[in-house]
Amino acid sequence: MLVPLQDESKPWMAKGETQTGDHDRQAKDDPSKAVEWYQPTVKSLPLSTVEFFENYIGVKGENAIKQHIYMIRDMAWEVLPYPCIGLFRFLDFSIHLSPDYPRVVKRVQEGATLLDLGCCFGQDLRKLAYDAGPGSPTCNLIGTDLQPAFLQLGYELFADRDRFEATFVSGDVFAEDFLAEYRGKVDIVYLGSFLHLFSEPQQRVVVRQLRRLLRPRAGSMVFGRNLGAGKGGPFRMESIGWDLHPTRKGGINSGRVDGEHDVKWEVTSSLGRYGSANWDDDRRGWQGDETKQMMFTAIQL
Ligand SMILES: C[S@@+](CC[C@H](N)C(=O)[O-])C[C@H]1O[C@@H](n2cnc3c(N)ncnc32)[C@H](O)[C@@H]1O
């Protein structure tokens, strides 16, 4: 069931507006933040991130940008304490780390419809719109997430409620009618730190939903990043108490839609170091050495 966003609905603002100042001290006073995957502050932001925030939202100076980010991030932490929120992983703008990013930007400039599934703040859509440049048809960008509050906080983080043309809808990928109005209309799907949240049978359901959404033609594409592991199979991250499910090469084929003829997908993937430009390196230990970052792209042939 899709829930349209209510622009005026900001129940979290009253709380968040009081959160300014010394975030290290505040974190010590809050037991929910006494976990390894909550990093109170970032030491320094990459220059490209500072430039993006300065140009996109108009807040000038690294310090002011950081304070703005801390305030919104802490509101999101209260919604759900995901590591990608606690560790500022959303500041990776991970979509641009894909080797296929340049051609994705070009396709978006040319009018492709792109869906960011599990988009959280919608940071990757903002990055894409920024890189595609003025005049690009950003009305063809769609972001969806289970948590409507993350979508609303995205408008606060990027101060663009009245100007960002992308469509945001909250929805559960496991709902039978998930994004039903977009079936067969999507050219590209981005999955950032999403598939590893689900078991392999659940991943098959997700892939089936993607194949319903994608245009059934050559060039339709799914790409992204998630946790991976050299040894394969699910593994438990003891410190967080989660079972994680790295994706397997070729998984896109296992979500065939009823009545669909055999289609071939070219799948490429790579396994690299799990990390982020925004982390304190001394927090690296929480996820264990076996955790890697997998980048993948699947293109329909
Ligand atoms: C680990 S976060 C990744 C966020 C973002 N894509 C990124 O790369 O930083 C996973 C996101 O998926 C969303 N999510 C979890 N289960 C979902 C579901 N069943 N349907 C849609 N979104 C879901 C969460 O609310 C969260 O925002």
Account of the 3D structure:
Pfam families: Methyltransf_25. Keywords: Methyltransferase, S-adenosyl-L-methionine, Transferase. Residues 115-216 form the Methyltransferase domain. By secondary structure, the protein is α/β, with parallel strands linked by helices. It has two domains: 13-90, no CATH class; 94-300, 3-Layer(aba) Sandwich (Rossmann fold). The chain has helices spanning 13-16, 23-29, 47-57, 62-79, 83-86, 101-109, 123-132, 148-158, 200-213, and strands spanning 114-117, 141-145, 167-170, 188-192, 221-228, 235-237, 242-244, 265-273, 292-300. The strands form two sheets. The chain has a seven-stranded mixed sheet. Helix 4 packs antiparallel against helix 8 and helix 6 crosses helix 7. The protein is globular and about 55 Å long. The two termini are 32 Å apart. Residues 82, 84, 89-90, 94, 118-120, 145-147, 150, 172-174, 192-194, 197 line the site of S-adenosylmethionine. The site of S-adenosylmethionine has 19 residues, from loops.
Outline the secondary-structure elements:
Blueprint: H1 13-16, H2 23-29, H3 47-57, H4 62-79, H5 83-86, H6 101-109, E1 114-117, H7 123-132, E2 141-145, H8 148-158, E3 167-170, E4 188-192, H9 200-213, E5 221-228, E6 235-237, E7 242-244, E8 265-273, E9 292-300
Parallel strand pairs: 1-2, 1-4, 2-3, 4-5
Antiparallel strand pairs: 5-9, 6-7, 8-9
Helix pairs in contact: 4-8, 6-7
Biased composition (Basic and acidic residues): 20-32
Keywords: Methyltransferase, S-adenosyl-L-methionine, Transferase
Protein name: Methyltransferase
